[in-house]
């Protein structure tokens, strides 16, 4: 099986360690992963902002770059959802029958947890991460892809982990791409609720499958000096005793910041 890594422009620009962790994890499980250098943006930001026809060149590029692969894996539920749910629609808008056919026959794009559980058939990936972790299911992975309990199944099998429940886990964090910029006040209020729930969980680390949401929540966690760290699912699953994620502090026996919800809302 020829597997390609679709890193996404967000990860490539701001969180390259997630891409490296994804490759390290897949190679540890016996996969041969290729990284097509010609890949670019999937067009999600343009599409969501109303510039749907401007997505056409990006969809064309995507179908050309990944055409020869059996599977495409990405550490991003939102970009996987864009490709699977909307690339076909954009191709139809173009009026290009060849592009429409290519988009329909393109290799399936899998969010990382989908690929591990559904294609490789594994939940125990040999990871070790001795920290208290809570998991935030991002909106696209939860509502569009329907990844369900796959990430939690993978996390439960990690040795040493203390996986705790996140209250109101299915509530949006308020990022939503350009939504956070166009509706900043609403976005911050939603994130304040999410942060209050993260603190209520008592977790040392907040995990998710999308770095965009983690960046949004992590910004508030950092400004409040909570000590809670954010980490992509791929980096936890790639972690071993010999090679933990960079800058991961030793397990803490002390309590985390328990700033009350009212204090969070005062941001």
UniProtKB/TrEMBL annotation:
Stretches for region Disordered: 238-267
Pfam families attached to this UniProt entry: CCG (PF02754)
Domain named Cysteine-rich: residues: 3-83, 133-217
Superkingdom assignment: Bacteria
Name of the protein in question: (Fe-S)-binding protein
Organism: Streptomyces xantholiticus
Species lineage: Bacteria, Bacillati, Actinomycetota, Actinomycetes, Kitasatosporales
């Amino acid at each position: 099986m020829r597997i390609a890594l679709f890193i996404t422009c967000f990860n490539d620009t701001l969180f390259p360690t997630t891409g490296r962790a994804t490759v390290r994890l897949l190679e540890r499980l016996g996969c041969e992963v290729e990284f097509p250098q010609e890949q670019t943006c999937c067009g999600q930001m343009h599409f969501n902002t109303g510039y749907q026809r401007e997505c056409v060149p990006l969809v064309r590029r995507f179908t050309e770059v990944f055409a020869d692969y059996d599977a495409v894996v990405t550490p991003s539920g939102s970009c996987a959802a864009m490709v699977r749910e909307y690339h076909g629609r954009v191709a139809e808008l173009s009026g290009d029958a060849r592009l429409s056919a290519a988009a329909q026959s393109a290799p399936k794009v899998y969010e990382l947890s989908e690929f591990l559980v559904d294609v490789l058939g594994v939940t125990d990936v040999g990871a070790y991460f001795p920290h208290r972790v809570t998991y935030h299911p991002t909106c696209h992975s939860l509502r569009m892809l329907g990844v369900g309990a796959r990430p939690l199944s993978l996390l439960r099998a990690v040795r040493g982990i203390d996986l705790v429940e996140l209250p109101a886990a299915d509530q949006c964090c308020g990022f939503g791409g350009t939504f956070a910029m166009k509706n900043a006040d609403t976005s911050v209020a939603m994130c304040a609720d999410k942060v209050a729930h993260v603190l209520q969980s008592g977790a040392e680390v907040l995990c998710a499958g999308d770095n965009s949401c983690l960046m949004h929540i992590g910004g508030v966690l950092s400004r409040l000096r909570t000590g809670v760290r954010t980490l992509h699912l791929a980096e936890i699953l790639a972690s071993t005793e010999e090679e933990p994620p960079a800058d991961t502090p030793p397990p803490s026996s002390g309590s985390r910041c328990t700033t009350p919800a009212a204090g969070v809302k005062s941001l």
